[in-house]
Fold this sequence. Notes:
Layout: E1 2-3, E2 16-19, E3 24-27, E4 32-34, H1 39-53, H2 56-75, H3 83-99, E5 102-106, E6 113-119, H4 136-150, E7 154-160, E8 168-175, H5 184-198
Antiparallel strand pairs: 1-5, 2-3, 3-4, 5-6, 6-8, 7-8
Helix pairs in contact: 1-2, 2-4, 2-5, 3-4
The protein binds zinc ion (ZN).
Amino acid sequence: MRELESVELPKIEDFYDLNYEKGEIRLRGVKGRAFVLSTQAWAAFRVALSNGFKEEASFFVFQMGYSVGMSYVEQIRKLQGEPKKRLKILLSIAKSYGWGPFSIDGDADNATELIVVAKNCPFCHGRPLSESPVCHFLTGFVNGLIDRLYDGQHKASETKCTRMGGTTCEITITEMPAENQGRMGTEANEHVGEAILGEGSAYSDGRS
Ligand SMILES: [Zn+2]
């Protein structure tokens, strides 16, 4: 298991300008704002969703994570380098956001088979033990990162979850064979592009 030690760990001030008077957290380098969401609020959101939408709630939360993952890749699009290097940077940024430390195992050069291990995961923090994995947002997030970084469709599933016992959540990613790759990823990619361009951000590169 390789730790992400080759990437110098950024600090939260490297990404944000905090303006207490305006009640604003501004993202550096892009025209965007951020806000803080507590794990209690997240848990309340998840419980309300799953009460209202039952099994569909997991898919909905997964899709949210997927879009967020892809938008994160967009946010560092000015950074050059191999997907493996950018994946490490993104995971270390996520760590700085309070998402816990990550490590990766497997084929990070091509992402044919890869495991992203999350320690101290905030998405299932404080939740009761469960028989099945519960970090659908994180799973979608990792799936979105990998699809966008490696330019293809992958299947991500949470194969270990802290809520099932143990100390880590693990997202296993496998590359989807070319014949199984449908439009879903492409459409989601387009929507993320629209959402980001709609913010009037630094990403107007002629695609709008
Ligand atoms: Zn989990």
